[in-house]
Design a protein that fits this description.
CATH topology: 434 Repressor (Amino-terminal Domain)
Organism: Bifidobacterium breve DSM 20213 = JCM 1192
Number of strands: 0
CATH superfamily: lambda repressor-like DNA-binding domains
CATH architecture: Orthogonal Bundle
GO molecular function: DNA binding
Number of domains: 1
Number of helices: 5
Oligomer: single chain
InterPro entries: Cro/C1-type_HTH, Lambda_DNA-bd_dom_sf, Tscrpt_reg_BetR_N
Structural class: mainly alpha
Protein name: HTH cro/C1-type domain-containing protein
Pfam families: BetR
């Protein structure tokens, strides 16, 4: 059985880190502000910024909304797919 040290992130933390990195890159590429991201997600600018900084977790709804907005798969955002080819 593989054991992790106490300082090593859990699988959930690693997945959320990937989600945050990928969404942050897409937000930057599109030039979205935190206010615009918050508007897409029904959140305040402060909450959107907290998500981009990894202080607040992404919900399933966030991931679905952003996959549709950026035309990428949820698998890409979750780190299951390396390519972020546009999806219809």
């Amino acid at each position: 059985m593989l054991k992790y040290s106490k300082n090593e992130p859990s699988q959930e933390e690693r997945t959320m880190n990937v989600v945050t990195q990928r969404i942050s890159a897409l937000v930057k590429d599109e030039g979205l502000t935190c206010a615009q991201l918050g508007s897409l997600l029904g959140l305040s600018k402060t909450s959107a910024n907290g998500k981009l900084l990894g202080r607040i977790g992404w919900t399933t709804s966030d991931i679905v909304v952003l996959s549709e907005h950026f035309h990428v798969s949820t698998d890409y955002l979750l780190g299951f797919d390396a390519d972020h080819e546009e999806v219809a």
